[in-house]
Structure formats: C-alpha cells, structure tokens
Write a structure and sequence with these properties.
The complex is a heterodimer of chains A (291) and B (302). Chain A contains ten helices and no strands. With 291 residues, chain A is mostly helical. Chain A folds into two domains: 39 residues; 236 residues, MetI-like (MetI-like fold), CATH 1.10.3720. The radius of gyration of chain A is 23 Å and the shape is globular. Chain B is built from eleven helices and ten strands. The chains are: A mainly alpha (291), B alpha/beta (302).
Chain lengths: 291, 302
C-alpha cells in the first residue's frame, strides 16, 4: 500500500475510534438522563419539594434536606481534612534525602483508603460509631463515613492542583522575599484554586450520590431532620428513596423514586455549573487565558 | 589629647562625590578637626559615604551539590552602583553563583557552601539574618518573565504588600511610579486590572522588573534577563539597566557576549566551576590575561 493511502486509512480509523469512544461515554449518560426525565416529569408535582414523607407517599422534604445537610457536613469535614492533607503532601512533606518527594507513607495510606469499597467503610461506621459509640443511626456517623470515603479524593486533587503551579511563580515569590506561608496564600493557592474547588465539588457530588455506607450509618427515616447529630432514629436522604421506593406496591411511592432521581441529577448539575463558574472567575488572570 | 581626630572606620571607603562609578574607592577623607559638622553634609551629598565600597563580597566561596563541586574558591567584590556581567558556557556555575547571593539555593537538596558572602559587610548566612529582608535588599529577575496570576497593578505591588512597605491608596502611587520607571505606564495605564499575560513577553519582563524594583532593593540579580526577548525589547531593557546602575548594583548572567560588553562595567568569566578571570569589561574582552578567556570571548570555545 502506498504510504499516503496508509496514512489516510490510519487517520480515518483513528478518528472513527475516538468518536466511538466518545459515543460510548455520552450515550448511556444521555439515555439515563432521558429516561429519568421521561419517568419523572409526567407526574411531577412541585409540592414534592416541601411536603414530608408519609407511609404511602407525600413529598421529599426530609430526604432533600437530608442530602443537602450530608453534603454540607462532608464539605466541612472532608473539605478541611482533604485540602490540608493535599497541602501537606504537595508543600510541607519533607523531601527524602535522595531528593524524592516526601509524604510517601501518607500518600500510600490515602491511596489504600480510596481503594476501599464504600460498603466496607459503611460497615466500619456501623460497628465503630453506630454501635460502638452508641450514636445510633444518625447524621454524624453518616457524615464521618462519607468524609472518610472522599478525603483521599480531595487530597489527591488538591495535591495535583498544587503541583501544577509553575515553579516560576514560587521562585518569583521567594525572590521577592515573601514568606512561605504568604506566598502560599497569595500566589500558590490562588493559582491552584480552580483544581481544588473542582475536586471539592466532585467529591460532594460523589457523597450526595452514595447509598451503601449510608444504609449502615443513617439507615432511613421519614421524619424531617430534628437537629440531632447523634442518637437519632435514622436519617432520610434521596438515594435511599431512589433505591427502595421504585418497586413498592404504592404507586405514589414509585413516582417519588423517580422524582428523587431527577432532583439528585439536578443537584449534581448545579454543582458542576457552580464549579465551572468558580473556575472561570478565579482564572481571570491565569496564564492560559489571554482574554 | 583632643587634637587627634577619630579615625574613620578603615574599611568604610566610598568614592568622593556623588558617583558610585567605576573608581576604586580609597577611603574616607578624615574630617578636619574642629569642624565636626562636615559629616552630615557629606552624608547628605552621598548617602553611601561610610558604607563599604563593595556592596557584595564573596570570600573563598565554594559551592557543592551533594558531592559535586560546582564552584570553588570565588573571591570577588561587587562595587556599589556598577553592573557586573557573569559570562561562561552552560554548566560553568555562573547561575548557581548568582542564585547563592540571595540564598535561593539554600533549600535545594544537597546544597552546601564554604567560605562566605557578605552584604554590606555582613554575612548573608549570619545567625539572626532575616532571610525575607535579605531578599528584599537583593532582588532577582529571571530568564523567563514570571508575572503572578493577578492583575497588572497587583503584580507590581505584590512585594510591597508582602513587606508592608505601603498600603491602601499608596499602593496605586507605588504602582504608577514603578511602571513609569520601567517605561510601561503609558502602555498599561488603561488596563491595570487586566491579566499580565495579555502583555507581550518584553512587557511582561518589564513588569517583573517593576515588581522587583518596587521593594527598593540595593542589589538586583539578573539571570539571563533578555534571553527570551526580541532584539528591540532587549535593547530597551539594556538601556534601562544602564539607567538603574548608579542607584543599584546589578549582577547579570548572560550568554550574550555582545550584551556583556555593551552594558557591564566589570566582567567575570566562569569556566568549568572556576572563576577564570575577572576585571573591567574592556580589559576582559580586549586584553584577556588568560588564554581560556581569550578563546571564549573570541568565540572559539563555548
């Protein structure tokens, strides 16, 4: 085959391959979205958003609030721990004498933690917190276990974002006589913030969409959150509704299952849009942008 | 007993008059007995009077990374208000030497030094030395422009803020003054809040120079400051350096021999970890003492 023809054939095949891969990613996402919308919208009632659950139906006020509170709790607990851990790995860990990066043990521990199946973490939470500390099924054990699950993720994305900050910025700050902490706050973190924020929001989306560890730590409850962190009798959240209500005998409960799925998807979309906006705003002065 | 005037500090020579020029200082003329008020007058005429003629000195400076010796026994003085060019092939140690002067090498793994570097007679490694203040006094400009990802105005005053030299509305004044000083004001005055990365490479480098000047350094270290710039920008930066020189002491690493010749008063030639030769630029280029220097400046090695 002449060289030119071979090149053309290769190009066509390669393009086709990349396009097929893209379609494989997009198609299921589009299909899921479409089917959830198709099942939820025809019987949609806005009062689902502000009425409480009843044994046969009602609304989703409790689970919606529950999921939002869980996310807020995860943002506080996992956000703090994860960002600080990432900061340590990227900036503080003392390099080894060979010149290799420090923090090897911590990084490896974090990787191992992220490899744990979430249901195992849930069981750990059940044994240690729900039963061991007599906290019962409630908010705090759920938040702690979800946080444990996403901390490695946040730490990793924070570390990666910090490592991508050009050395030239750090050197420039150093040569101006900025203290390490000062240049970290004013120059380095500012540069890394899009990556850190994106990591945080995706971690939140993961936490909001999780079910297995919550079955062990929050169980479920129809009542709207009363303000108790521990010693409650279960805790409502959206994924449980999605997971259990769809095949109950009650028709209205089946509808709620699809409503909950739709609300979850909208929440995740809002998170992604917020992430985009924050990234765009903090990158006004970044090197890649010239407009 | 009272007839003997007190002897001025022996080392505290400064060139008489205003110029910090190329003259080698010989010592302060003793104030005549009975006219004690002459000192403040002379101080006002020349604020550098009574300070050491050499702002920066190195004594037997040897630099190592792990077991590898980068530079050995460098003895050198950098006279106030002069421009010194550091030339030599890649890997000859000149950049390492430069980065040692504001202690940028300290945190590099395996960095060790022997000998000393003094700034105004005081070792830069002396216990109790404020590293941040040292770097304020010994500024640095890098090979590639490295503005921070913040607005043009914030870039200029970044160091001023960090050292709390000025605040609030004063920062605007500082920003304007320094941008004027580097000749960038007219180009950027309407877009002080824009991203610095919209500027051309030459303008970015000038912005970095304004940022370095804003904290009021005594010494400015320049690591190939024009090697990523076009010829027009290069010429402009060189002219600017010549203007800055009387007030500042400049030490410039350059691979551009013509540039060394154009801008510097003194030249140091490094080769293979040794300071082969140093002296007035004209002499190093016209009548080098060492055959290696001659071969380098005439383009036969390097």
């Amino acid at each position: 085959m002449p060289r030119k023809r071979r090149r053309v054939v290769f190009t066509v095949l390669f393009r086709g391959g990349t396009f097929a891969a893209l379609a494989l990613v997009l198609a299921p996402a589009a299909w899921l979205l479409a089917s959830v919308i198709a099942k939820a919208v025809p019987h949609w009632r806005w009062n689902v958003l502000w009425t409480a659950l009843t044994p046969t139906g009602g609304g989703l006020l409790g689970p919606i609030l529950g999921t939002l509170i869980l996310m807020a709790g995860v943002l506080v607990v996992a956000g703090t721990v994860g960002v600080l851990a990432g900061l340590h790995l990227a900036e503080m860990a003392t390099p080894r004498r060979s010149g290799a990066d420090g923090g090897t043990v911590l990084r490896m521990a974090s990787d191992v933690l992220s490899g744990f199946p979430s249901i195992v973490l849930g069981y750990v939470g059940y044994v240690a917190l729900v039963v061991g500390l007599h906290w019962n099924y409630s908010l705090l054990p759920a938040v702690l276990i979800l946080s444990l699950m996403v901390v490695p993720y946040i730490a990793k994305s924070t570390e990666t974002a910090l490592r991508q900050v050009p050395t030239a910025y750090r050197e420039g700050a150093e040569a101006l006589g900025m203290a390490t902490g000062y240049s970290l706050r004013k120059v380095v973190l500012r540069t890394a913030s899009p990556g850190i924020v994106t990591g945080l929001l995706i971690a939140l989306a993961i936490a909001g969409g999780e079910t297995a560890p919550l079955l062990f730590t929050a169980e479920f409850s129809r009542t709207v959150w009363t303000g108790a962190f521990v010693h409650a009798h279960g805790f409502g959240y959206l994924t449980y509704v999605v997971y259990t209500f769809w095949d109950t005998p009650s028709k209205s409960a089946n509808y709620l299952s699809y409503d909950a799925a739709l609300i979850l998807i909208v929440m995740v979309l809002v998170l992604l849009v917020v992430a985009r906006l924050i990234v765009a705003r903090s990158q006004r002065y970044s090197e890649g942008r010239t407009r | 007993m009272a007839t003997e005037p007190p002897v001025a500090g022996a080392a505290s020579g400064a060139a008489p008059g205003l110029s910090g020029g190329k003259h080698v200082a010989t010592g302060t003329p003793s104030p005549a007995a009975g006219i004690p008020r002459v000192d403040p007058v002379l101080d006002a005429l020349d604020p550098d009077r009574g300070r050491p003629a050499n702002v920066v000195e190195t004594h037997g400076l040897t630099l190592r990374f792990l077991d590898k010796t980068i530079l050995s026994s460098i003895d050198m003085g950098f006279e106030r208000g002069t421009i010194t060019a550091l030339i030599g092939p890649t890997g000859s140690g000149k950049s390492t030497f430069l980065r040692t002067l504001n202690r940028m090498n300290d945190k590099v793994t395996g960095f060790r030094y022997e000998g000393s570097v003094t700034l105004e007679g005081r070792s830069i490694w002396a216990p109790g030395t404020d590293l941040l203040e040292l770097r304020r006094r010994v500024g640095m400009l890098f090979q590639r422009p490295n503005p921070f990802p913040m607005s043009i105005r914030d870039n200029v005053v970044a160091g001023v803020r960090a050292h709390r030299i000025a605040k609030g509305r004063q920062l605007d004044v500082v920003a304007e003054q320094r941008l004027r000083e580097v000749g960038l004001w007219d180009a950027v005055q309407d877009r002080l809040n824009d991203s610095p990365f919209r500027l051309s490479g030459g303008q970015q480098q000038l912005l970095c120079l304004a940022r370095a000047l804003a904290v009021g350094p005594d010494v400015l270290l320049l690591d190939e400051p024009t090697s990523s710039l076009d010829p027009i920008s290069t010429e402009y930066v060189e002219a600017l350096l010549a203007q800055l020189a009387p007030a500042l002491t400049l030490i410039v690493v350059t691979h551009n021999l013509a540039q060394a010749r154009r801008v510097s008063h003194r030249t140091m030639f490094f080769y293979d970890g040794r300071l082969v030769e140093h002296g007035p630029t004209d002499q190093v280029f016209e009548h080098p003492r060492d055959p290696q220097t001659e071969r380098y400046v005439t383009g036969r090695i390097g």
